[in-house]
Amino acid sequence: MHPKILLVDDREDNLLAIETIFEPDDYRFVKARSGREALKILLREVDFALIMMDVKMPNLNGFETASLIYEREKLRHIPIIFVTANNFGDENLYRGYQAGAIDYIYKPIKPEVLRAKVSVLIDLYRKNRQLIAQEQRLVAINKSLELEIKERKASEEKIKHLNRQLLENIASLEQANKDLDRFAFMASHDLQEPLRKIRMFSDRLALRYNDIIDDEGRTNIQRIHKAAERMQNLITDILTFSKISVDSHHFVKTDINALINEVISDLDDEVKTRRAVIQVDPIPALDVNPSLIKPLFHNLIGNALKYAQKDVTPIVRITAEIPTPLNGRPDSEPRYCRIYVRDNGIGFDQKYAEEIFGMFKRLHHNSEFQGTGIGLALCKKIVEQHKGYISARSKVNEGSTFIISLPTEHEKTAVTTGIR
């Protein structure tokens, strides 16, 4: 914007002469023919860079007009130059300065002198405007920072509150889990006694009254036996699952191949009955809890045998690999060993690949395949206790592959939960 200058003089020719002097400087001029008219203009506009005013004017002279102008706080920043044809002497000069003037220009006006003085004042005006604009920006930035700090403090308080709630919820959940584990453990123990009696008395019925009971009675006793056996398996699985959260043992370097051979030996009868082929490639020794890893492979190999296809020789192959670390990966990060348990069984739809690791989740009816629906949930929990991962890939009638990723090593102080 062009700086504005207010020219105050009762003579039009004087106003025109001054305007002509500043024509090359591209200032904007507002003209007033009297002190009163100047005051009226200043009621509407206050953004003047300079006021040039004649001293000798009718009604209100320059000194009186200047005094009235500076009574307003908003106008005190505007410098005033008096234009006069008389040399008033020191007393009148003092009166002009006292009224607020900063300088005098004497007639006849010397254009070079007038332009030089006005140029200095205009330059000060522009710098002052820049400072004001900068101050306004700083004030705006400060307000923005204050608001941001306030919002950040509020967010921090909210986060602290949420963290406290989260810690309380975690503590509550941990306690609830411990209580549930204890309850499952105790309830399973308490269920053992009546179950033993059911099996004992049903055995007595079958032995003592076998010749008396008709076919329907014998069938019912057989159903009691199967139901009791299924309940016994369920209790055993629940006990195994609950004990994982109760006992603690250190990890030890374990020969995984030897451990798998023990599992195969335990399943020897079923392997021979189904004429299964189990191939085990060399697997590196790992820091694991042997009492947990053994039931892991027992469940996976047992499932591979259980869910074999009819009239097809079950083939189970167990392999392992340790993926090469990615370039730039820190040596301090843990390395994992991937163990693959592949079979040629009935398989399942891949969309159930995550659901099968849920508690009591079964994809087949109990009449088709015996089971409790806890085995794979137990496998997942065991692997997670080792800070590892388990997943499955499968297609219907094309077999399944279970992938177990276990850290090759654990810290010496690391502990995990185990089975007594």
Structural class: alpha/beta
Write the CATH architecture name of the domain at 247-418.
Answer: 2-Layer Sandwich
What pattern of helices and strands is seen along the backbone? EHEHEHEHEHHEEHHEEHEEHEEE
Indicate the proportion of strand residues. 15-25%
CATH C-level class of the domain at 247-418 is Alpha Beta
Low-confidence stretches: 412-420
Q: In angstroms, what separates the terminal alpha carbons? A: 89 Å
Could you report the average pLDDT, rounded to the nearest whole number?
A: 81
Net shape: rod-shaped
Strand order of the largest sheet: 2-1-3-4-5
Percent of residues in helices: 40-55%
Q: By CATH's scheme, which homologous superfamily of the domain at 247-418 applies?
A: Histidine kinase-like ATPase, C-terminal domain
Please compute the radius of gyration using only Cα atoms: 49 Å
Number of H/I helices: 10
Summarize the biggest pleated sheet.
5 strands, parallel
Enter the CATH topology name of the domain at 247-418. Heat Shock Protein 90
Give the number of DSSP strands. Answer: 14
Describe the protein.
This protein is α/β, with parallel strands linked by helices. Among the domains are: 106 residues, Response regulator (Rossmann fold, 3-Layer(aba) Sandwich); 172 residues, Histidine kinase-like ATPase, C-terminal domain (Heat Shock Protein 90), CATH 3.30.565.10. It is built from ten helices and 14 strands. The strands form four sheets. It has a five-stranded parallel sheet with strand order 2-1-3-4-5, sandwiched between helices. Strand 3, helix 3 and strand 4 form a beta-alpha-beta unit. The longest helix has 98 residues. The chain is rod-shaped, with a radius of gyration of 49 Å. The two termini are 89 Å apart.
